């Protein structure tokens, strides 16, 4: 039986996820309840399949956005509704089967033991992981750790993680960024700035080939340009906050 919680929920933002979404959602439901899926303007028919699944799964809720707004916007919609219903923490995971649903209970337990912290997945890649993606994330990780004065971010891009909801809502409502692919790295940096410390837990990640049902919305030029602009903004913010960050590190 899955664990049931009134404070911690699984939140899955989903945009044209392909055939893996049903397996992903059922795997999450086998480990935890409730599971919410925010359908971010999908046009691949997955919303109908998910809504049909929700009629037989008591722990499943489907939230449908009328148009594609980006991952960060989908997460903000989900956590805002969750906060209104009394939830305090959300574990986010991708809808395409890359993230390990079997580790949901361990991540939730770590969050419940240290509720003021965020719990970050630190990816363990298999042999099929694209080298460009594996090596490219090292750049973002380096910048994120510099921008937080090495508060301990194990990985800035891996979206399998548990957030304390209220600090994240406050940060996102205070700026107009963090709405698309830039959400995951900017969220951890700004949460560190707000004093939310990370706990890192190793977690496998799998990249599926197209013939295995894998779907990728990553656009190399577009998304790396977005990340470059994001880290430029964050570095400026880091410089402005440097005295506070140094004081925090010394104390």
Question: How does the SSE layout of this entry go?
Answer:
Elements: E1 3-4, E2 8-14, H1 20-31, E3 32-33, E4 35-40, H2 46-54, E5 60-65, H3 71-84, E6 89-92, H4 104-113, E7 118-125, H5 131-147, E8 161-164, H6 165-173, H7 183-193, E9 198-205, H8 220-250
Parallel strand pairs: 1-3, 2-4, 2-6, 4-5, 7-9
Antiparallel strand pairs: 6-8, 7-8
Helix pairs in contact: 3-6, 5-7, 5-8, 7-8
Strand order of the largest sheet: 5-4-2-6-8-7-9
Shape: globular
Poorly predicted sequence stretches spanning 5 or more consecutive residues: none
Question: What is the rounded Rg?
Answer: 17 Å
* Largest beta-sheet details: 7 strands, mixed
Helix fraction by DSSP (H/I, runs of at least 4):
40-55%
Total helix count? 8
The computed structural class is alpha/beta
| Beta-strand fraction estimate | 15-25%
What is the residue-averaged pLDDT?
91
Distance between the termini: 44 Å
Order of helices and strands: EEHEEHEHEHEHEHHEH
Number of separate strands: 9
Structure, explained:
By secondary structure, the chain is of the alpha/beta class. It is built from eight helices and nine strands. It has helices spanning 20-31, 46-54, 71-84, 104-113, 131-147, 165-173, 183-193, 220-250, and strands at residues 3-4, 8-14, 32-33, 35-40, 60-65, 89-92, 118-125, 161-164, 198-205. The strands form two sheets. Strands 5-4-2-6-8-7-9 form a seven-stranded mixed beta sheet, with helices on both faces. A two-stranded parallel sheet has the order 1-3. α3 (71-84) crosses α6, α5 (131-147) runs parallel beside α7 (183-193) and α7 (183-193) packs parallel to α8. The chain is globular and about 55 Å long. The mean pLDDT is 91.
């Amino acid at each position: 039986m899955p664990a049931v919680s009134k404070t911690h929920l699984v939140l899955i933002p989903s945009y044209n996820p392909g055939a893996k979404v049903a397996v992903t959602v059922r795997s999450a439901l086998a480990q935890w309840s409730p599971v919410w899926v925010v359908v971010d303007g999908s046009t691949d028919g997955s919303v109908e399949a998910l809504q049909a699944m929700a009629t037989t799964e008591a722990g499943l809720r489907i939230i449908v956005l009328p148009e594609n707004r980006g991952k960060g916007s989908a997460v903000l919609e989900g956590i805002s509704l969750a906060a209104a219903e009394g939830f305090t923490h959300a574990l986010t995971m991708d809808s395409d089967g890359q993230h390990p649903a079997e580790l949901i209970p361990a991540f939730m337990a770590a969050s419940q033991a240290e509720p003021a912290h965020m719990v970050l997945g630190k990816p363990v890649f298999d042999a099929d992981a694209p080298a460009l993606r594996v090596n490219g994330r090292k750049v973002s990780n380096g910048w994120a750790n510099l921008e937080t004065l090495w508060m301990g971010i194990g990985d800035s891009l891996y979206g399998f993680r548990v957030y304390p909801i209220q600090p994240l809502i406050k940060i996102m409502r205070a700026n107009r960024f963090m709405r698309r692919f830039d959400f995951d790295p900017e969220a951890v940096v700004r949460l560190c700035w707000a004093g939310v410390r990370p706990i890192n837990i190793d977690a496998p990640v799998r990249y599926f080939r197209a013939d295995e049902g894998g779907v990728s919305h990553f656009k190399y030029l577009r998304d790396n340009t977005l990340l470059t602009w994001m880290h430029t903004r964050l570095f400026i913010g880091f410089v402005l906050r440097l005295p506070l960050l140094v004081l925090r590190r010394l104390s």
